[in-house]
Input
Amino acid sequence: MRLPVYLYGHPVLRKITAPVTPDYEGFKELIDNMFSTMYDSEGVGLAAPQIGLGHSIVVIDADPVKDSFPECAGRRLVLVNPEIEVLDGEAVSREEGCLSLPGLSEKVSRVENIRMRWLDENFEEHDEVFTGFLSRIIQHECDHLQGKLYIDHISMIRKQLIKSKLNNIIAGKVRCDYPVKYAPKKR
Output
């Protein structure tokens, strides 16, 4: 089932998520719904806060960008309670976009090498090193679990330059090709 993507300005996007346990009711269906929502929205990653849930869950399918980033080939991941450790290496600046910030993209500096520990959809433990663009996708999605958005990594000057676009998203003055949920109106 395709779920609405919560857009910038919605409070759920700024909350730190709670860990998930194996007794999570409807977990398998939620994962299926998250993948369906991500695919229908033409994304490569989706975090639970983006569908209004405060749980530490991310789905990723990086395969669509494999032609430009070979490390992404065949990488379909379910990340439950992920923990990232930054490894040595330079930060690289690349354009990022987000389903919760439609119509925007900004250059964001991120490290290229991370180590991550997580549980998969069967609650089996994993520990792996990720590099390149796949590392960026993982960091972007895991930021959502900490109440952060990619625009939190850009300069104050850039934020000022895109302020009217951000306000348009909050005001519901954007159109998307996927179902969305706008921020609640202030009274």
